[in-house]
């Protein structure tokens, strides 16, 4: 899954279009769709990350490995710092959206 696919899933989760995201973050119309083949500048990527309240690493697919989220149980990660707990929660939410979408196909 590439950067554009992750952003698309986040948009679906928040019920916002790509065009609306571009408008609200001050990005040029059609610029995010190009990110399926290119990586944007750091400041543009940060605007999208801030909009969704996720990290740029999350958008780039560099966050928590799937094996960590797949083995999660209640209380898992309680010993992590708050920012890591938030990243874990975001990744789990992402997986829920991703696999919910596959189940509906």
Description of the molecule:
By secondary structure, the protein is mainly alpha-helical. Helices cover 60% and strands 0% of the residues. It has one domain (3-103): lambda repressor-like DNA-binding domains (434 Repressor (Amino-terminal Domain)). It is built from six helices and no strands. The longest helix is centred in the C-terminal third of the chain and has 22 residues, at 82-103. The chain is globular. The two termini are 17 Å apart. 15% of the residues are buried.
CATH class categorisation: Mainly Alpha
Instruction: Please give the largest β-sheet.
Output: none
CATH superfamily: lambda repressor-like DNA-binding domains
Mean pLDDT: 81
Number of helices, counting only DSSP H or I runs of 4 residues or more:
6
Radius of gyration: 14 Å
Shape: globular
Q: What is the helical fraction, as a range of percent?
A: 55-70%
The count of domains is: 1
CATH topology: 434 Repressor (Amino-terminal Domain)
> Which sequence of SSEs, written as H and E, runs from N to C?
HHHHHH
